[in-house]
């Protein structure tokens, strides 16, 4: 996986990892897989647990600290950023982990674009003209 592939993989996996941390907090690292968990949370849990298994004691301590911090944070954007950095670094440092985690996500089809929006009044589009969110706006006249 080259740097661009790592970034793309993290963009795909990030929402699942964030959802798992939001749902389970730091226990996501050690809890048994929950068959009732939705697919996104389950995927995020499997990703984090794979990272946990491949780390030594100091790596596990760091992973635990970062996941605790992300779980306690009330700002979703901050949480996504912290977890994305963690994933990117792990993928760059461990080629075997890259292979294991790459197998968890289907490769996007050629030409496929993934667009994600999260949060209140979020919008997402590949191509967009004017986009206004919030209250009390007047649309511009052409």
What is the tally of beta strands? 0
Q: Kindly state the percentage of residues in helix.
A: 55-70%
Give the topology string: H per helix, E per strand: HHHHH
Q: What kind of sheet is the major sheet?
A: none
**Alpha-carbon Rg, integer:** 17 Å
- Summing up helix and strand content along with how strands pair, one would put the structural category as mainly alpha
> Tell me, what's the shape?
globular
Mean pLDDT: 77
Helical stretch tally: 5
CA-CA gap between termini: 46 Å
Oligomeric description of these chains: single chain
% residues in beta strands: under 5%
Low-confidence stretches: none
Characterize the structure shown.
The protein has 142 residues and is mainly alpha-helical. Helices cover 56% and strands 0% of the residues. The longest helix has 22 residues, at 3-24. It is globular and about 60 Å long.
List keywords for this structure.
mainly alpha, single chain, 142 residues, globular
